Amino acid sequence: MRTVYASLTAMFLALVFGPWLISKLRELQIGQYIREEGPQNHQKKAGTPTMGGVLIVLSTLVPTILWADLTNKFVLLTIFSLLAFAAIGFIDDFAKVSQRRNLGLTAKRKIYFQVFASLIVAIVLLVMATSSAYSTQFVFPFLKHFRPDLVIHSLLSQSTFGGHLWPLAFVPFLFATAVVIVGSSNAVNLTDGLDGLAIGCTVIAAGAFTVLTYVSSNFRWPPTSKFSTSPASEN
């Protein structure tokens, strides 16, 4: 039910505040600047209000605070990731608007910020792994018995090369985490096209994650009849 309530809350916030926010952005002339090298049919999107990510963050953050379990460290870490990358996007959009062109943060600077935020997440996960609250094993789809550990435990031994190489034990995990988070952050914009209007892909991805969230958190999935008395249904 929390998934349903969170989805309805997000929809309510988007429907109520969406038109008002778009109107305000247009009044402030905060519009999208289309790259000159892009297709001609993209030029008609010029002036579309940018900084619409504010509405997406609002519609995600508020339902999470209202309906998610805030004692769960993974939920808190997800909120941090959302706000950190939202801040990077806001800085990028603000630079575009202030300079009146489709060039905000440079690619290198944006990647630096994203990697820095990702490494913070990775370090927190490593700390959680020390208390067995998180596993650093890498799970491959369709290969459930092949789960290599991204932390090289042999380097953590004090006897390994005098014990001076222990920081290298965490490099594979830090690298993999940064690649996944930074790659996921940029994948939608790169898939969506040249003008940075990524809401279409966001809706598709959000819908898929909504279904996966419900199914993965419902231990009675697939649902069984409450009138069934077979041992299989009780298990």
Description:
The chain is mainly alpha-helical. Helices cover 58% and strands 0% of the residues. It is globular, with a radius of gyration of 22 Å.
Structural class, from helix and strand content? mainly alpha
Gyration radius over CA: 22 Å
- Alpha-carbon distance between the termini? 22 Å
Strand content: under 5%
Poorly predicted spans = 33-39, 227-235
The helical percent reads 55-70%
**Extended strand count:** 0
| Element-level helix/strand string | HHHHHHH
Major beta sheet summary: none
Write the layout of secondary structure elements.
Layout: H1 2-27, H2 53-67, H3 73-99, H4 107-130, H5 171-192, H6 199-217, H7 231-234
Helix pairs in contact: 1-2, 2-3, 3-4, 4-5, 5-6
Task: Quickly describe the structure.
This protein has seven helices and no strands. The protein has 235 residues and is an all-alpha fold.
